[in-house]
Amino acid sequence: MKPNDVVLQTITTVAAFIIVLFSIQLFFAGHYNPGGGFIGGLLTSGAIVLLLLAFDIKTVSTIFPFDYKIMTAIGLLLSVGTGAGALLFDVPFLTHAYEYFHLPLLGEQSLHTAVIFDTGVYLVVIGITMTIIQTIGESE
Amino acid sequence: MLNIGLDILIALFILGGALLALVAAYGVLRLPDVYTRNHAASKSATLGIMLLLFGTFLYFLEDGHFNSRLLLGIAFIFITSPVAGHLLSRAAYNSGVKLWEGSVQDDLENKEKLEQGK
């Protein structure tokens, strides 16, 4: 008998959007408020795990056609890259810089290179969590 | 800060939410089987948490701090908590948990027989 998961699947499509939005908010709020790359990445992978619970593993891999191991590698590369970029300006490794910019629509904003480092952390956390969960989920 | 009426309203929301959470815990202890317990836990705990969050939201609003996360939390609890209750009940029924002996009707009892007859 085929189980009927229509309640779970309908709510998942709504809830996953809220979770992903909240995780992006946590990621960008990390500099001035509690949050950052680690918790944002965990929450994003939580949304993907919710989709994995409601739908099967094949559907989710067509929605998100990423190889999570490559995502981890890109994240590490971003973090090391921002650290090594400091050496070009003759300052110690991992020295960060920021500047105030006047952006269209957003107005006066300070852009910080730590965001790129945090993006690396974010991608590594998503990649590792999803690799672990999908590897356990696929093994018989 | 001297807005006494709003302070009383906030206190009513928070105390009402805490009372409903207590009622939910009491229902989980007192009710006879998993379905009635689930009924108590998923309904009154949901409303209790929503009242608590709304009271907290009003408390911060009084200080001029609009916390949209609390509103998002209210909406999120409201849509997800009943679904969690539904899934728990359904998992319990499908794994064969018996109803309370005082139950008078079980509409899903002959479900598999009916589906095979089609």
Description:
Chain A has one domain (5-138). Chain A contains five helices and two strands. Chain A has helices at residues 6-29, 37-54, 57-63, 68-88, 114-138; strands spanning 98-103, 107-112. The longest helix of chain A has 25 residues, at 114-138. In chain B, helix 1 (4-30) runs antiparallel to helix 2 and helix 2 (34-62) runs antiparallel to helix 3 (68-94). With 118 residues, chain B is an all-alpha fold. Chain A: Residues 7-131 form the Na+/H+ antiporter MnhB subunit-related protein domain. Chain A: Its main location: membrane. Chain A: It comes from Bacillus coahuilensis p1.1.43.
- Main beta sheet of chain B: none
Instruction: Work out the helix count of chain B.
Output: 4
The helix tally of chain A amounts to 5
Radius of gyration of CA atoms of chain B, rounded to a whole number? 20 Å
Q: Which parts of chain A are unreliable, with pLDDT below 50 for 5 consecutive residues or more?
A: none
How many strands appear in the DSSP assignment of chain A?
Answer: 2
Major protein interface:
A-B, 8 and 11 residues
Question: What number is the mean pLDDT of chain A?
Answer: 88
- SSE pattern of chain A, N- to C-terminal: HHHHEEH
Report the structural category of chain A. mainly alpha
One letter per element, helices H and strands E, the order of chain B comes to: HHHH
Give me the side-by-side strand order of the main sheet of chain A. Answer: 1-2
Strand content of chain A: 5-15%
Membrane topology (chain A): Multi-pass membrane protein
Organism (chain A): Bacillus coahuilensis p1.1.43
Domain Na+/H+ antiporter MnhB subunit-related protein (chain A): 7-131
Family (chain A): Belongs to the CPA3 antiporters (TC 2.A.63) subunit B family.
